[in-house]
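Issue 218. Parser rejects a valid record. Input:
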Amino acid sequence: MEKFFASCPRGLEALLAEDLVAAGVSELQVIPGGVHFVAKWPACYAANLHSRIATRILWRVAHGRYAKEDDIYRLALDTPWPLWFTAEQTIRVDVTAVKSTLRSLEFITLRIKDAICDRFRADASKRPNVDTREPDVRVHGFITVDECTLYVDTSGAPLYQRGLRQKTVEAPLKENVAAGILRLSGWQPGTPLLDPMCGSGTFLVEAAQMALNIAPGAGRSFGFQRLKAFQLDLWKNLLERAMDDEKPAADAHIYGSDLSPVAVRAALANLDRAGLLPAVTLSTGDLLEIRAPTEQGVMVANPPYGERLSELDELAAFYPLLGSALKRNFAGWNCYLLSADLRLPKLMRLTPSKKTPLYNGAIECRLFEFKMVAGSNRR
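Output the parser choked on:
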C-alpha cells in the first residue's frame, strides 16, 4: 500500500472523496483542498483516469521534521529517487508552504533539486536535467511550520487539462470546477441542461462526457507512465474497460448559447475536437431574450464578475435584467450561477435557496442556486 494526496479546488473535497471511493480507495482523510488516501497502484491509475474533480494525485515518498534548510536538503538526499526514475529523464521541483518560517521558497526549491541531483550522482554517476515546461517527472515539496513532505506527481499536467480544449475565450472556467458545479447542481444525464453564457464550452464538454460515460483522462497521458514501476498491462486493461463503457455520441439534451458568435465558434471547435458535437445543441443568443428549450431542466452559468469599477457599474445594471429574464423565461428550471460578486442575488432581486463557497483558481466565488417558480422568487 502507498500513501497519496489528491488535490482539488476548495469546496469540492467531498466530491473528490466520492471519486476516490469509486476508484477503489477505502482509507481516506478529507482536508481543505484535497484528500489523503492509502491505496495500491491500480486505484491511483483509476483515480487519474476517472476523477473529474482532482487537480493532481501525488505519491508521498518522504516525510520528516526540519529546523533549517539543510534538514530539508538531507531529507531529499536520503530519498531513493533513482529507484523511481532515471538520470536521463528531466525533472521539475515545486514547493508550497503553509505557515513556514523559512525565508525563501525559491531557495528551498533549489535545495531539493540539488539534493535529487546529488543523490543521482552518488548512485548513478550522472544527474537529471531540469525542464520547467514539460518535465518527465514532477516533484512537489509541501512545508508546514516544522515538517516537510516530498511527493512524486503521478498526474503530470494538471488533471483538469483533459487534452481536449482547442480554442478558448477570456476567463475560461477550469474543467474540474465545471464538473463539480454539474455534480453540485444534482444534474443527471438525460435531464435537459443549458449553459446560456457558454464561452468556449467548458460546461458543455464536461456534461457531454458525463452523458456519454467518457472517462475524463481517456485522451491524455500521465506522470505515472514515466515511472520505472509503471505497469503497462494494468493500465491497458483499465483504459480498454473505460473505452468499452463509452456510449456513442448522440443528442443528450445539452444546450449551449452565447451572445458572442466568437465564443459559440470556440465552443463548437472544442466539442468537435472531442467528438462530442452530436450530443450538444449550440446557438447564438442573448440570455436576457432566449427562452428555455424545455419546460424543466438545469441551467448552469458563469456570468462575468467585474474587477474594475466601470465593470461593476455595468453588472449592477445587468443583474436586475438577468433576474427578470430568469423569472420570465425559466419558470420550472433550477438555475446555478457561479460568481465572485456577492451582490448578485440582491441585485437580481432573487433569494438563493443555497450558496456554496467555491474557488475558481485563486478567486473565491459562490455557487448560487435559484429554484425558479412562476412569479416572484423573493421571500
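Fixed in the parser; the record now loads. The chain is about 30% helix and 25% strand.
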